[in-house]
Task: inverse folding
């Protein structure tokens, strides 16, 4: 049986998670910012359908993307080189977090909506966004939101939540720029939670729960990443939107940056 959580009940140790359903650790509690921060700090996340009680998970193995192993396809690398030079593209941070969440929750390709990103979940993560813990990375083309992702940042750990795209490659471009930004600030691992073919194609892989827990303890105890609303340049720097920095300048900076940054690219 999973642990039953009251308002003040702490999470049980991760090794108490069930084998079936795989990774289910606890049931109950709430989606307050304090509870969510505590959960993520221990490698636990909520996932449940609307109308169900809150379910808390810690899967084993755990899907992660190490930033130095990000592996875009050839076509995505080509696309990123275009984006780095094209002023029509802007990769922004925290300028449309609510819209990104709604887009992630919307139906895709004739499928049902992602009902786990329910209105209650959106409200909870937007509250955490206001508190500085949740961030959106957005691909804008000609002033229109074309794709993006959102996730949680604690210390030097980033936890990816969901992605969406309205234009081919737009979500992968956002991911590539996120990797550049995080790499610039020493973040080495993005938690992806569940193993998917899509993430594997971009260099993601699985590690054991115990290894993930060990890396997480080290990461969350480190100084946090300097998030603020703005846009990410090709070299990973985050600048305010008001700063006039043409795409060509960002591209020149990227060419002079660390080799890791130059290798990032994405494909849908």
Result:
């Amino acid at each position: 049986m999973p642990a039953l959580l009251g308002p003040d009940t702490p999470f049980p140790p991760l090794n108490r998670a069930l084998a079936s359903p795989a990774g289910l650790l606890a049931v109950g509690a709430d989606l307050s910012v304090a509870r969510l921060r505590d959960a993520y700090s221990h490698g636990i996340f909520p996932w449940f359908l609307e109308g169900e009680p809150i379910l808390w998970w810690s899967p084993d193995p755990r899907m992660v993307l190490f930033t130095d192993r990000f592996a875009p396809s050839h076509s995505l690398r080509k696309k990123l080189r275009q984006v780095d030079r094209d002023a029509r593209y802007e990769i922004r941070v925290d300028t449309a977090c609510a819209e990104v969440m709604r887009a992630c929750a919307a139906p895709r390709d004739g499928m049902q909506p992602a009902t786990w990103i329910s209105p209650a979940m959106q409200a909870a993560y937007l509250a955490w966004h206001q508190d500085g813990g949740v961030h959106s990375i957005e691909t804008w083309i000609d002033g229109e939101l074309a794709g993006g992702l959102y996730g949680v940042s604690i210390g030097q750990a980033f936890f990816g939540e969901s992605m969406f795209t309205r234009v081919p490659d737009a979500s992968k471009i956002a991911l590539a720029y996120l990797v550049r930004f995080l790499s610039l600030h020493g973040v080495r691992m993005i938690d992806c939670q569940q193993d998917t073919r899509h993430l594997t194609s971009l260099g993601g892989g699985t590690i054991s729960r115990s290894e993930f827990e060990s890396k997480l303890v080290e990461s969350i105890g480190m100084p946090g990443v300097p998030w603020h609303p703005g846009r990410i340049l090709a070299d990973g720097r985050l600048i305010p939107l008001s700063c006039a920095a043409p795409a060509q300048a960002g591209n020149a900076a990227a060419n002079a940056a660390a080799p890791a940054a130059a290798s990032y690219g994405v494909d849908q």
